[in-house]
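Anyone else keep sequences and structure tokens together like this?

Example one:
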Amino acid sequence: MSLEFKVSELAREFGVHRNTIRNWINSGRLRARPAPGRRYLVDPRDYEQLCHRYGRTPPPASKPAVQPVAEAPRSSLPPLLLGEQTTTLHDDPAWAERCLTCGSCSAACPLAGVDGLDPRRIVRMALLGLEEELLASDWPWKCTLCGRCEEACPMDMEIMRLMHSIRGHRERHQVPGPLHRGVTTCLSRGNNMGIPGEDFVALLQQLGEELAREGCRGFVTPIDRHGARLLITVNSKEVFSEPDNLKYWWRILHAAGESWTISSTCWEGVNWGLFTGDQEAMRTLVGRLVDTMQGLNCQALLLPECGHAYFATRYGLERWYPEVQAEYRLYSVFDLLLEYLHQGRLRLDPERHTRLATCHDPCHYGRISAKYFGRAYFAEAREIIASCCPRFVDLVPGGLDSYCCGAGGTSWTTPFAAERVYAGRLKARQIRESGAGLVVTACHNCRDQIMKSLAREFDLDIRVKYLWQLVAEALV
């Protein structure tokens, strides 16, 4: 006799997040077997040991959190042997056997059917050892890695992890678009664009002088300032094409009286090692940020690039530098802005933006952050917007079920433009149906996709702003 439970049920019993229960299962701390309907089977003795380990008394038999279920009788038929199967795409080849091919992932995927793409098909191909076919396919690169497939999956399949693995196993010279070139350039020259250090410093100084003339009296760009509390990074795309956008954050930091700095050498806020599946490059880039924080004696780090940079760095710190994560604070854009607002360090005009506003939630700050870190940034964005906008409407569906804009997973950078626009059709429909005239988001790629692509392709009469741009423009 085994006990049956749902992750959410056990999470409520132990007073933890459901991702904590998943982590216990994945790490072997709780030995449980997947069962249909997003349920798990566990031996009663293992359940009692878990209760003992965390100082809990198993509930009375009349109201157990986990339900007894009879084992199905074993078949007397001999197994059907398909021959030896080997796979390098996953450390546990049996993981794909949990897949029920129910189609939930395909129904949730914004690209299902395009060029034959189907998450179920990719999972079965990985299970059957068809690795060469998967590596030759462009499916993993057209995928936006939005995570809607995993959110819909009743068996908690790690489809995104498979996509990352397929990307990482492709020959580097066959990585589409400028992604691999950006990684190698960042490793050799410090940023994805290869911008010379002296040019970067000169630009920062020039922008600082402009900001001082525009109302931030006494402002001087703090470059390599030792002992500053906060180290911030920069997206090299903005340095290259939209440098004035850097001043949005600088206005906020100046108004809040923040002690902050930018490194003249390690300032890139983009980590494409994540999206190319290059774990070693990803680890190196995170390590450089660690060295920079320690070298400049900073206490905290802000990655204002987008959700993927926050995810890549936090994931890297937890995996490779846990002792550093315990010593330094990693801010999301939401954490820092709310800290300033709650401490009264920013004065904002709540009537500054008069258009009906809505919020697009980047996938890495939402579903993916919830899955890996146990926290999604939804309410935080809306609290910040409410401090700047008198009128707001939410997109439906929202939260963990929200639609990807179509530019995730570096789709904005790859040559698959038609697929990117198609994947964003649902987001465009959401925005039109909301009636909003102002779309606010906390991601560079999301902003570019909505403003420069979806608005044009679907004739949307909207303005698009970064979350921090919204705040900077509402400063009193």
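And example two:
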Amino acid sequence: MTYALDSNTVSYFLRGEGKVRNYFKHEIVEAGNHYKIPFIVAYEIKRWLLYKPNKINTAFNLEFTALFHNVQDKAEMPLSVWEKAVDIYISLQEKGQLIGDADILIAAYSLVNDCTLVTRNAKDFGRINGLNTVDWYE
């Protein structure tokens, strides 16, 4: 199984909040599953870490760089992801249930790459047909 990590999951991982590190250890390290971090998530995390640099964020930045480096894929946002994002946008727009563009791209990435999205944001992501999500926080 392959998991795509949402921004909130990565931030909980870095801060040691919830049960994210335990799930990561069990689901990735011990179970031999894989994880991916979409570039849009990397952007959101780096933006958060570099906005107000301090000793804690510097340590988080180093850990995130290692976490992201292990999964970086130079072709991870091919045209198929952008096309899926457009489909998701249109579907949500027609229902009057739009979510943020970053979340649409994260969902599109997860669907195109057949990943289960690890997120605590089931409310927004639950609106997207066919998207599998899990919450590692609880």
